Amino acid sequence: MKRQAASESQRLATSRRHALALGLAVPLSAGAAALAGPGTGPAAAAARAARAGHPFRDPLLSVEDRVADLLGRLTREEKISLLHQYQPAIPRLGIRSFRTGGEGLHGVAWLGEATVFPQAVGLASTWNPELIRRVGAAVGDEARGFQHERPEGWSFNLWAPVVNLLRDPRWGRNEEGYAEDPYLTGVISTAYGTGLQGEDPRRLRTAPTLKHYLANNTEKDRVTSDSVLPERVRREYYEAAFRPALTADAVTGVMSAYNLVNGRPATVDPDLGARVREWARKELLNVTDADGPNNLVGLQDYYPTLAEAGAAALKAGIDSFTNDSEDSSKTVKALTTAFDKGLIDESDLDTAVGHLLGIRVRLGEFDPGGGPYGKIDKSVIDSPAHRSLARETAGEAIVLLKNERGTLPLDAEKLTKLAVLGPLADTLYTDWYSGSLPYEVTPRKGIAERLGAAGEVTGGEGVDRIVLRDADSGRYLTAGRGEDGAVLSVTAEDPGRTGQFDVFGWGQGVVTLRSAANRRYVGLDGKVFRNDKKQPDGWFAQQQFVLEKPGRPERPEQQDDDGTRLVRYAGYETLRDDYGPERYLGTGGDDGRTAVLTTKADATRYRVTTVRDGLAEAVEAARDADAAVVVVGSMPHINGREDHDRTSMALAEEQAALVRAVHRANPRTVVVLVTSYPDTVTWEQRHVPALVWTTHAGQETGNALADVLFGDRNPAGRLTQTWYRSEDDLPGLLDYDIITSGRTYLYFRGDPLYAFGHGLSYTAFRYGAPKLPEDTLGREGSVTVSVRVTNTGERDGEEVVQLYTRQLTSRDKQPLQQLRGFQRVPVKAGRSRTVRLTLRAADLAHWDVTRGRWVVESGEYEVRVGASASDIRGRTRLRVRGETIPPRDLSATTRAASFDGYRGVRLVDESKVRGDAVGSDADRSWIVFRDVELGDGVREFTARVAREARGSGTLTVRLGSPKGAVVATAEVPSTGDRYAYRNVSARVRGARGRQDVHLVFSGELRLSSFSLR
């Protein structure tokens, strides 16, 4: 129902009250100010807004009053139009168009040149929330810097930060997240979001949105894959990453994920409108991921029509539909149809539109001059202050993995010649969500500038330069000059510069070809090939190739190597053509000499000649130098990225060979890993004396790296993920149950290559024993853990003091240890300082599945302080007075999903709207409820079940184990539909005392709830 606008006098009086409440000077009455005509100051602005009859433009009114006023002025058609990502202008109210969704993950993206900070995983590697708050503020300012031009793709609403946990380093979007730990993720995301939002308590610099709710970190079949989350895993791990920034009001909403969670698409997860909003004190603006609503009727086949899908998403808690890019017509039509059919009503529209308008009000969009941030202009973009901050952040993010025999820091005064080598020595790569680099300080450039005239920097990229000669015609494949290059052709009798290509290996046979003529990469341009890309980029990264022997690649032992190669196009794009699953470079076109896409049968055979041996040159440079720095790593658009998970955690074969050869030539070798992910660099750890890791760190990478390598900055970055020795240490990529599978530092019992929190320094720190003011803690209390840290070396440095706890006894399986606090502290050489970290009893809570609530268990907890999860320097004990979880009582209705353990079952959607059930398609699958009090005996087993298939299945109740004594068996007949439930019962015999109760499934069925009475 429309709310009528307040009368003129009421509006003016309200303006005055709000001005007084804010402590603003109001020399005239509101009415007198209105009569006084034009003036300055908030009272005059409020008076002019009131006189115009639009209280929603009155900056002194509350957000709620302004939203209510504006909402009351909108027609139903206008409300529906605002629910699409591209919200149209409403000229009659003087309202501009608005778009949800700018990108600001580690700088403003997709709008041209802007300050590029380290990738998100690098930001978290600083373990410095105050620094990350400053980075967020800089990114927010730069987003505002575009506000007066508003280029395509710009928005006040930024889709960042990403808080999906890095539970598996093979995830293609690993660089977008912060950590495998929910506490660290929460601290860093809160800091970044706070910076993006700004300091004004009533207005927003930008409106940050957390991505992607929930349990979203696999790219394979990401729209249809199902993240199966038992209750404890969901509450303690995945939700725990989202909750901190929301409870701190550091963000303004969440984005729903693509995947399913327990059988239900995340786009219609009811938590979006319930639990997520309960965590925040202010109203949220929740958005879908791109085309999420379409997926509900497409790949997910969850609803038959867009109208039903749109209604379900709106009721679940979605406020903005990111669908069909700029075309809002399908969304508007679907929601209009949903309204006409009674699937949604006016209150549903008002709720969602109210959330949208609330954020727009807080952004100052309806304030005179755009509010407190309205005057920010493009002068802030890539400002000197932001350049300095980018260098500082990139330096703080660098992690020293290994340093033996004083290899680092390098002494510039003693180096006469330094070899800087590797495929990333002269290149800075950006990722999909990066802005354009305003300038580039490469590793070589930064090192050479730091070394200065006193020393010489030698060496190259360590990659081969080749020419490709058509084996049939004898002519060479050539490219073009200039930034735009040219379509490749087989025309030249002499290759010259345009016929030479540098071959960069990225592992598993995939290479990129960079033209020597213009240093641009060759990629697919339609059905021809052109050398016009500064780096591999685009959604499909069409600059990927494999140099393949002719014949049958699946039977290499039967191939005769005649020295020729086929050039297979290995880009991600699925082409709509007749070339089959494998596409190759052929020769065709109107002139019969153009390099075109073709089938393998018609592919051109090339004789490959190496004109520069990159490995040999690198070895020669390393042998002749005082030391060698080898810069290797990943290409963010190739080695794993959005829509593509990594299939290997190893360094590219060519890069690994380069490292080994350089190390043989010069034992004083430093390997710099520039990657978006952990790698299995086990050989390097064993043999290379110094290893340094940085993520792709933006424009100041080279300066930051030089600062660390030469000791101008003592490194203090720390890893935010476990680095494993082998893929064999990891369970399947789609296994989200970290408790059962033993994933991350919380549950992994193996020996990691580098532990969570690992990072070295050029000095050493000694820890004293951790001290507690008392050894007992009540369930509502907190305690301060203090530890004295001494810098025992000769250099000033920073230490990241980490606080972990381990619960020594529990009803439930607990983490091996869990991060509870940390502090990055500077300590001067030879000095000490006391670090104090607060530990609350509430921090020790875990989810009690028996009663469906958080619980702090009574018992002993080990309090640990150390430099990483595997480098604990001190321990003490703390007794907690909490509660004891009683035996389970299954006599009342019990949710099947609240089990203690399982095998062979899946959690599924109880209905399309809400609730989880347990589903099984396999015989002898089971769930267990431990420590059940059956008393003197129970008589009846009742279960609420559904079975879509014909025929019947069974539910068997067994005691002690899945093969234990049978005490009841209930037959489950077909109910005709997976969501059609009915109650079945069976008599129970011989069930008494305290027992582990197993429910064993036979046949396809779903179990919603049950009781044993």
From TrEMBL:
Keywords: Hydrolase, Signal. It holds the Pfam family CBM_6. SUPFAM superfamilies: (Trans)glycosidases (SSF51445), Actin-crosslinking proteins (SSF50405), Beta-D-glucan exohydrolase, C-terminal domain (SSF52279), Galactose-binding domain-like (SSF49785). One of its GO terms (molecular function) is hydrolase activity. Residues 892-1013 form the CBM6 domain. It comes from the Bacteria. InterPro entries: Actin-crosslinking, BXL, CBM6, Cellulose-bd_IV, Fn3-like, Galactose-bd-like_sf, GH, Glyco_hydro_3_C. PROSITE patterns: CBM6, TAT. Residues 1-32 form the signal peptide. Belongs to the glycosyl hydrolase 3 family. This is Glycoside hydrolase family 3 protein.
